């Protein structure tokens, strides 16, 4: 290996100038093309007065800039970090894979062993020189390990942006389906069926009838019912019409013509501006997971369960809010005139903070993106049957569940 390394690993002074020029030119062209594309997208959003989406694009640029700084720091400091030596007994604590698993892997023969040999050669060429530590000491992190961290961070930044954009697209598709309901509000049939002079009992209205029953007045059964209702009901026509009527009655003059569907679409863009970025708290959760990903602690299982728990909790809360609105209508009036009037209030939300729901969605999106990233990174670096995945089929199932559930549920209720 040492002799081969001397033959194949060459520095710039022994590399053809055309090879250096071609590689640099390709990197520069790709970088300039990406910058031009982002600039054109920003101009297009500005021309169409999409202020929220433009701010989201600026956050994506900032995230790419942070990624560039991380890459620069890792490249510049990799050899200095690798020269930090620690005792072997300390290095063998809190390992993501057991030492026995690594020994079994190294003793494996045949084609798979040949594949790992080629892999090792490639990594040595990528890493270059290794640090020299005294006896019973090893590097804090090898150059090879720093290179793997570099790839993991790159995967995470790219997939988080893609995952957030996919959620935005699915949310817009869901809202587009409400356009027909909005158009119905301008028809004569709608005005006749919702005549303000028409009186009805509150329990006869479709909104109250859909969200109340005998169990809604019992606290225990109230939340149990809301939990199971989320699996069978999204936003119905009666929900949309009632919320639209309540919004217009509070914020606009009676009889005003207002496109509530476009308002929701703009609100979705404002929410996307929030969830597309990576806050220090999210980066902190990334570091905490890397710290707790110890062999036997099942950190991967618990981390993949957190987004699912958040999804179910948020969906249950949103169903509970609609149900409480319906109950408030029945408590205020025995008879309702026209469409029942709902009154939105921050008190319906946890701690009176509606933004907390959006923050939880943001956290769940990031965690799901991270779980997908971590799965793909392990697949790329170590293969599916590595020690990181004791049962990789279960890991695939959990990853797919989280990937499918968040975009489908969030921004669609």
From TrEMBL:
Residue ranges of the TM segments: 18-39, 60-81, 149-170, 272-293, 299-316, 360-380
GO biological process, one term: defense response
Keyword 4Fe-4S on entry: no
Subcellular location: Membrane
One Gene Ontology cellular component: membrane
Bilayer disposition of the protein: Multi-pass membrane protein
Keywords: Calmodulin-binding, Membrane, Pathogenesis-related protein, Plant defense, Transmembrane, Transmembrane helix
Pfam family for this entry, one: Mlo
GO-annotated molecular function: calmodulin binding
InterPro entries: Mlo
Main localization, broad class: membrane
Signal listed as a keyword: no
PANTHER family in the cross-refs: MLO-LIKE PROTEIN 1, MLO-LIKE PROTEIN 8
Function: May be involved in modulation of pathogen defense and leaf cell death.
Entry domain remark: The C-terminus contains a calmodulin-binding domain, which binds calmodulin in a calcium-dependent fashion.
Similarity remark: Belongs to the MLO family.
Full protein name: MLO-like protein
């Amino acid at each position: 290996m040492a002799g081969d390394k001397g033959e194949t690993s060459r520095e710039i002074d022994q590399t053809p100038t055309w090879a250096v020029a071609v590689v640099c030119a390709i990197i520069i062209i790709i970088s300039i093309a990406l910058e031009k594309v982002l600039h054109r997208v920003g101009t297009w959003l500005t021309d169409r007065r999409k202020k929220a989406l433009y701010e989201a694009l600026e956050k994506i640029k900032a995230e790419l800039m942070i990624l560039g700084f991380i890459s620069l720091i890792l490249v510049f400091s990799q050899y200095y970090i690798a020269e930090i030596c620690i005792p072997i007994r300390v290095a063998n604590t809190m390992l993501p894979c057991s030492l026995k698993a690594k020994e079994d892997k190294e003793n494996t023969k045949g084609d798979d062993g040949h594949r790992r040999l080629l892999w090792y050669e490639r990594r040595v060429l990528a890493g270059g020189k290794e640090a020299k530590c005294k006896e019973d000491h090893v590097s804090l992190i090898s150059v090879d390990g720093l290179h793997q961290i570099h790839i993991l961070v790159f995967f995470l930044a790219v997939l988080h942006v893609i995952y957030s954009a996919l959620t935005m697209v699915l949310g817009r598709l869901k809202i587009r389906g409400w356009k027909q309901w909005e158009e119905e509000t301008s028809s004569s049939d709608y005005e006749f069926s919702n005549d303000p002079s028409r009186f009805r009992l509150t329990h006869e209205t479709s909104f109250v009838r859909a969200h109340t029953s005998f169990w809604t007045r019992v606290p225990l059964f109230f939340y149990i019912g809301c939990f199971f209702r989320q699996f069978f009901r999204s936003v119905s026509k009666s929900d949309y019409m009632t919320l639209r009527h309540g919004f217009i009655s509070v914020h606009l003059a009676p009889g005003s013509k207002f496109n509530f569907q476009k308002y929701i679409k703009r609100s979705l863009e404002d929410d996307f501006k929030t969830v597309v970025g990576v806050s220090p708290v999210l980066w902190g959760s990334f570091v905490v997971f890397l710290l707790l990903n110890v062999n036997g602690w099942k950190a991967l299982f618990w981390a993949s369960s957190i987004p699912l728990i958040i999804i179910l909790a948020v969906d249950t809360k949103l169903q509970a809010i609609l149900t409480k609105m319906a109950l408030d209508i029945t408590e205020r009036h025995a008879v309702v005139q026209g469409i029942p009037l709902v009154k939105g209030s921050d008190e319906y939300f946890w701690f009176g903070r509606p933004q907390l729901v959006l923050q939880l969605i943001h956290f769940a999106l990031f965690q799901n993106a991270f779980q997908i990233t971590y799965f793909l990174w392990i697949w790329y670096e170590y293969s599916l049957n590595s020690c990181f995945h004791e049962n990789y089929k279960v890991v695939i199932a959990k990853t797919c569940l989280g990937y499918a559930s968040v975009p489908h549920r969030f921004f669609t209720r």
